[in-house]
Design brief:
Layout (H helix, E strand, L loop, with lengths): L2 E11 L6 E8 L4 E8 H12 L8 H11 L3 E11 L2 E9 L4 E6 L1 H11 L2 E5 H7 L1 E2 L9 H5 L21 H13 L3 H14 L1
Helix pairs in contact: 1-3, 2-3, 6-7
């Protein structure tokens, strides 16, 4: 069965399930989109890697990467291979010099891990036939950079609006960035980092 390459197109708040997010994947050479509902923690783990934010402490998916490296394994690819009663199933394909192993996983965890290894994401035609949708340009999901900032830590401090950051000095912004990372407030950290990048 031929595999179909998927790209991550965006993350957005789920309209159907409160506290959840829709991870939108798109076929590399086609118009179909594959939306998968994922939890807040997994959405945050994916957004952090996309935004290249380094957390103050390693997250679970970072620990998996460190553990795999210690055993000389690398993640080659992620395959979303089945769909049963609205639930997606995935496999993480790992390799070392001696063997290849497949690990069953939720797609959200598999993709969060795969991103940390630069692994490609695949699915099969039967999955896209059953769950794929075609969106018009007007209905396209929001861009990654903007959607990643919508992922909030419920225990984090309130986030200042981006326009107020223009009033802070570079030194103050660096201090705020450190404090946000310590609190694991990654939404705030992303906004501060973007403001710093604008000034460089």
């Amino acid at each position: 069965m031929d595999k179909i390459r998927l790209d991550i197109l965006g993350l957005s708040s789920s309209q159907s399930q409160s506290g959840s997010f829709a991870l939108v994947l798109g076929e590399e050479k086609g118009e179909r989109r594959l939306p998968i509902i994922i939890g807040m923690f997994e959405a945050q783990a994916i957004a952090i890697e996309i935004e290249k934010i380094i957390p103050n402490r390693p997250m679970t998916h970072d620990l998996f990467k460190s553990f795999a490296h210690q055993l000389d394994f690398t993640v080659e690819e992620i395959i979303i291979y089945d769909l049963k009663e609205g639930v997606f199933f995935a496999r993480i394909i790992c390799k070392n010099a001696a063997k290849t192993i497949e690990i069953d996983s939720r797609p959200s965890d598999a993709i969060a891990i795969g991103l940390r290894f630069g692994a490609k994401i695949y699915t099969y035609e039967k999955i896209l036939e059953e769950a794929g949708v075609v969106l018009s340009e007007d209905d396209e999901e929001i861009e990654l950079k903007e959607s990643a900032k919508k992922i909030k830590d419920p225990e984090a401090a309130s986030v200042k609006k981006e326009k107020t950051m223009k009033d802070f000095s570079i030194k103050a912004l660096h201090k705020m960035l450190s404090e946000s990372l310590e609190k694991e407030d990654y939404e705030q950290a992303a906004k501060i980092r973007d403001e710093l990048n604008k000034r460089n």
